[in-house]
Design brief:
Layout: E1 4-10, E2 16-22, H1 45-48, H2 54-76, H3 97-109, H4 119-135, H5 140-151, H6 153-167, H7 174-196, H8 203-226, H9 228-252, H10 254-259, H11 264-270, H12 276-279, H13 296-323, H14 330-366
Bound molecules: fe (ii) ion (2 copies).
Length: 367
């Protein structure tokens, strides 16, 4: 039987709680209110440095990454001790690749969950999933951080191409730009949450994700150039996979996740006073989806549900590009519904006025 190591953290009310962590090590780790178990994003150079030219930012990044590379090599050679009591290793989260695959098969066995796609897209998707399964085996947080880094790229690609079309005067749709920006902003916050859980701690993961993201950006630009529905379809595949992965992660780590508090970045995103941007990528009326954010479990449920919203939006975008069924953001839809009501009211008044005039005219004729 596996030994259990207890470590404490702060719960949502600020009290100390015990969290049971499955691990073979006997070393107890104590977290208190003073030692936040999450990575403080404000300490990252990315947040502390003022906007600067590409050369100075690249130089700064190079120095930071060189330091990370040296540390990584040192740890691989055993010269530098690995600290497994830092996020994300200290949480002991689990994710079984086979169970994710089962989840995917189960979804695809139902008509409503299946993503119909062409063979090439499916092949690329399968290769990508196999690579992620291999590279991030038993490292779910790093896997999510990689996925969120890459998953933002399609929306940025779509915005770039839509801007280009607009600049060239080929085509214009401000609504699509707004929806894709809200989607990208949502994925950005998923990424920040994974960063606060330590998903970007390792040099190799950063190296892989950053380069894969730039490559993926251009692939999606090319897809969108060829056919927007092809690009949207591929994104639907990826977003549906994200739903499967987060669902399985929630199932496998439910008890532990429920005992951990939400990272600050998650609270500031999901519990903000103004959730205009959050509403803009939903498939609901504005203000109707206000998920709780009381624990890390809630945070992952919210992320999974966000991914589901992306799946629906990608489907709607495909219908738009294939059938011309226009896509509107929730606020624009609300505005359009209001205008329809105003128009109906106007028509009603106009009919009443026309009837009154015709009665007056007929009375005049009779008299
Ligand atoms: Fe995401
Ligand atoms: Fe996503």
């Amino acid at each position: 039987m596996e030994e259990k190591t207890k470590f404490t953290t702060t719960d949502t009310k600020g009290d100390s709680v015990f969290v049971e962590k499955q691990d073979s090590s006997k070393k107890p780790v104590w977290y208190s209110e003073d030692s936040d178990i999450y990575v403080d994003l404000t300490e990252s150079p990315n947040f502390q440095v003022k906007p600067a030219g590409a050369v100075s930012l690249a130089w700064l990044h190079f120095r930071k990454e060189l330091d990370g590379l040296v540390r990584s090599i040192g740890q691989s050679l055993g010269w530098i001790e690995r600290d497994e009591w830092t996020p994300p290793d200290c949480y002991g989260f689990r994710l079984d690749n086979d169970r994710v695959l089962e989840m995917q098969k189960q979804r695809e066995s139902e008509q409503s969950g299946r993503v119909s796609t062409n063979k090439l897209s499916r092949w690329i998707y399968d290769v990508l999933c196999s690579f992620i399964d291999f590279a991030y085996k038993d490292r779910p947080i790093e896997r999510f951080w990689f996925l969120e880094t890459v998953a933002r790229m399609p929306y940025f690609s779509y915005i770039s191409v839509l801007h280009l079309y607009e600049t060239l005067g080929w085509w214009r749709n401000g609504e699509l730009l707004k929806i894709h920006f809200a989607e990208e902003y949502n994925e950005f916050h998923h990424l920040l949450i994974m960063e606060s859980l330590g998903g970007s701690r390792k040099w190799l993961d950063r190296f892989l994700a950053e380069h894969a993201a730039v490559f993926y950006y251009w692939v999606l630009v090319l897809f969108f150039f060829l056919s927007p529905s092809l690009a949207y379809n591929f994104s639907e595949l990826i977003e549906a996979h994200a739903v499967d992965t987060y669902t399985e992660f929630l199932r496998a780590n439910e008890d532990l996740l429920k005992q951990l508090p939400p990272p600050k970045i998650a609270e500031s995103y999901y519990l903000a006073d103004n959730l205009y941007m959050f509403d803009e990528f939903q498939n609901h009326a504005p203000g109707t989806r206000r998920p709780p954010c009381d624990s890390l479990y809630d945070v992952f449920c919210n992320i999974r549900d966000d991914e589901m919203e992306h799946v629906k939006t990608m489907r709607a975008c495909q219908s738009y590009s294939k059938l011309g069924k226009i896509v509107l953001s929730p606020h624009a839809k609300l505005e359009a519904e209001k205008n329809i009501k105003i128009d109906e009211q106007k028509r009603k008044y106009w009919k009443q006025w026309a009837q009154r005039i015709s009665v007056q005219n007929s009375n005049k004729k009779n008299s």
